[in-house]
Amino acid sequence: MTGQKRIIIVGAGIAGLTTAFWLHQSGHQLLLIDAGEVGQESTWAGGGIISAVPPWNYPDLVNRWVSRSRALYPSMIEVLEQRTGIDCEYRTSGLVLTGWPMTAATAWLAANAVTAMTGPLKNFQPNLSSPEQDAILLPDVTQVRNPRLASAFRAWLDHQPIDLLEHTAVERVLLSHKRVQGVRTVRGDTIPARHVVLACGAWTDRILLRSGLDRLGIEAIRGQMLLYRPQPALLNHIINTPAGYLIPRQDGRILAGATVESVGIDRRPSHTGFQQLAEMAQQLLPALEPDCIELHWSGLRPGIRGDEPVCGPHDLNHGLWLQSGGFRNGLGIAPAAAEHLTQQMNQAVS
């Protein structure tokens, strides 16, 4: 690999991939680097709900970016699917929220002019337990099958003039006189660049510290998931309660998630997490018996205090850009955050 890469993106999860997508559209020369493989960390492990859940528990910025992402996803996915032939299963499935304090929920919906329907749970999903419990349906909420989205991005990269280095961990950002000079990998290779985007999720603070910079306060939060294959298909909508959520896939499978565990960089699923999710799922939908479970896995999400993501230039070092802290909304905000970052970088990169 020769020549100075104008922009290096560290991290090929959904934040780095969408950033590469938008920066490429703006004509920038790019190098995408990942310690593993494209889209195989929290991007693969998540649920793919394009909504904050529940939305009234998250900052206005998150909800604005989710709304914007919902507008951007169709055109982005159309490009990916036309180029690769991979169906990302992006669709409107609606979100039913139940078990939450209704006063706060209805006040937020009214204040934000969100399309919603209210009534007993049985009106929206008749085969759940507690059918008379109050519920809210947000009919416009969408979802994407995130492993398919990751595969589509990986195939799309093969057709683009974007350099890709997988299985290449970045140790630190190289700085001189508060200006980015490039990155150094853990193997000791130096890759020059004038601009570096850190889009490496739960690993962001590690790289900042190794670069001699202050942490952002991003913490690795493990989330465990179960995949069910019931017969026949049981759900029409995403269902969310304070205890967890169920997501129906297009083929009838159902995801149950997710735990929220502060365990450091440890992605190993646990028996405790399995039991927690299995009990939640069966209490909510009694037909989800343990013999329907196909898979159990976990991923590490970049949690940040206040749940407000970081997206923009580093305050003290020219050419260093930050794109992290999506936590449980990484897939939901990614296109909008990438668009926002690209707009800033277009003004700064020459």
Provide tags for this entry.
FAD/NAD(P)-binding domain; alpha+beta; 350 residues; eight-stranded mixed beta sheet
Q: What is the residue-mean pLDDT, rounded to a whole number? A: 95
The CATH class is Alpha Beta
The CA-CA distance between the termini, in Å, is 22 Å
What CATH calls the topology is FAD/NAD(P)-binding domain
Can you tell me the residue ranges where pLDDT is under 50 for at least 5 consecutive residues? none
CATH architecture: 3-Layer(bba) Sandwich
The topology string of helices and strands comes to EHEHEHEEHEEEHEEEEHEEEEEHEEEH
Please identify the structural class as seen in this structure: alpha+beta
Percentage of residues in helical conformation: 25-40%
Short synopsis of the structure:
The chain is α+β, with helices and mostly antiparallel strands. It is built from eight helices and 20 strands.
What does this structure look like?
The protein is α+β, with helices and mostly antiparallel strands and 350 residues long. It has one domain: FAD/NAD(P)-binding domain, CATH 3.50.50. It has eight helices and 20 strands. It has helices spanning 14-25, 42-45, 60-84, 102-111, 146-157, 204-210, 271-284, 330-348; strands spanning 5-10, 30-33, 49-50, 91-92, 95-98, 117-120, 134-138, 142-143, 163-165, 170-176, 179-185, 190-198, 218-228, 238-241, 244-248, 254-257, 261-262, 293-304, 310-313, 320-324. The strands form three sheets. Strands 5, 6, 7, 13, 14, 15, 16, 17 and 18 form a nine-stranded mixed beta sheet that branches. Strands 1, 2, 9, 10, 11, 12, 19 and 20 form an eight-stranded mixed beta sheet that branches. Helix 1 links the parallel strand 1 (5-10) and strand 2 (30-33). Helix 1 packs parallel to helix 8 (330-348), helix 3 (60-84) packs across helix 5 (146-157) and helix 3 (60-84) crosses helix 8. It is globular.
